[in-house]
Design goal:
By secondary structure, this protein is of the alpha/beta class. 40% of the residues lie in helices and 22% in strands. The protein has two domains: 4-222, Spore Coat Polysaccharide Biosynthesis Protein SpsA, Chain A; 233-324, no CATH class. The protein has helices at 17-30, 47-54, 68-77, 100-108, 179-184, 197-207, 233-250, 255-275, 279-305, 318-324; strands at 7-13, 35-41, 59-63, 84-88, 92-94, 112-121, 124-128, 136-138, 144-146, 149-150, 153-154, 164-167, 174-178, 211-222. Strands 1, 2, 3, 4, 5, 6, 7, 12, 13 and 14 form a ten-stranded mixed β-sheet that branches. β8 and β9 (144-146) form a beta hairpin. α7 packs parallel to α9 (279-305) and α8 packs antiparallel against α9 (279-305).
């Protein structure tokens, strides 16, 4: 039987000394039986010195370069032996007893490969947080959404998602995964750099018949956008590009139609940004599509090699449901 001591809590850090100062104390306080790691992505601030001086029980892993979220975790996790990995953002406050419900789920269901806890907003603790909320899903065209958050509509938490249930993807802000399965899946796709890479990982898990679960009796609070702000066009670029990468790699059928439809919807989003006088976001989408075309050959090669599984989506188009039918809750 797994115990909380079998968990490696791994925090990826890049120039985040201020975040470590603020959030490491809660992780240390409420994760005393787990082994905590800080994986540093070649920071140029004094993050490493701070951790080594103030948290001697934390193990430090120093990556030689900043390869983003995907490569950063791949490099760090290669040397970790604990059977359960917890990938935890540096801007998360954990709560008392947050690990036990996770271990209970892994022990109860051997087919469970990946777990996400309830993710609430650190700045507004009565509400869900954008990145993950109460578990992720995806529509036919690769648009991700969550219980508790559809596009920019965020629900208040009043216990409606205090359950345990299957989901399609778990947020990379706080993601638990069996170490053996992470390695079997060959970790994250490093071409993503950051954003959507956890959806790609979960989709590969789904296509190989593993389960992704949400456990609502474990709670964490997430700042969100602390490393790369939501107002940064680079985030828009990565989200749009990587969503196309993922759709081409994994959708089970009608890949041409679904991809073209998705790109048309991206075009509508770009025009909307233009009318909002945000040309930098329009340019980010154009850049994302350009990168997608340049990588299409490699993506199609990956598509041939990867297994496919039908019925990955619960909603045909979350864009239609949200913007046209005005559906704002899961």
């Amino acid at each position: 039987m797994l115990q909380t001591k079998d968990i490696a809590v791994v925090i990826l850090n890049w120039n985040g000394k201020a975040l470590l100062e603020q959030f490491l104390p809660s992780v240390v306080k409420y994760s005393s039986t787990a082994q905590i790691y800080v994986a540093d992505n070649a920071s140029t601030d004094d993050s490493v010195v701070f951790v080594s001086e103030h948290f001697p029980t934390i193990k430090l892993i120093q990556n030689t370069k900043n390869g983003g979220y995907a490569k950063g975790y791949n490099d760090a996790l290669a040397s970790i032996d604990e059977p359960i990995l917890c990938l935890l953002n540096s801007d998360i406050e954990v709560t008392e007893n947050w690990l036990q419900p996770i271990i209970d789920e892994f022990n109860t269901n051997s087919e469970t490969a990946i777990i996400q806890p309830k993710i609430l907003d650190f700045k507004n603790k009565s509400h869900f947080e954008y990145a993950g909320a109460a578990g992720g899903f995806i529509d036919k065209y690769g648009f991700p959404y969550c219980r508790g958050r559809i596009f920019d509509t965020i629900e208040k938490d009043h216990g409606q998602y205090n359950d345990t249930r299957d989901i399609f993807w778990a947020s990379g802000a706080c993601l638990f995964i069996r170490n053996s399965i992470f390695k079997t899946l060959n970790g994250f796709d490093e071409s993503y750099f950051a954003h959507i890479e956890e959806i790609d990982l979960c989709w590969r898990a789904y296509n190989t018949n593993h389960k992704v679960k949400y456990v609502g009796t474990s709670t964490v609070y997430h700042v969100g956008g602390a490393t790369l702000s939501n107002t940064n066009p680079k985030k828009t670029y990565l989200n749009f590009r990587n969503s196309l990468f993922t759709l081409v790699k994994h959708t089970d059928k009608n890949v041409f139609f679904r991809t073209v439809t998705r790109m048309k919807l991206d075009g509508i989003a770009a025009i909307r940004f233009l009318f909002q006088l945000k040309p930098q976001y329009l340019l980010a989408i154009l850049k994302a599509h350009g990168s997608f075309y340049r990588n299409l050959g490699q993506l199609l090669k990956q598509r041939k090699q990867l297994p496919k599984r039908p019925n990955y989506y619960e909603t045909n188009s979350i864009v239609w449901s949200y913007f046209i039918k005005k559906r704002t809750k899961f």
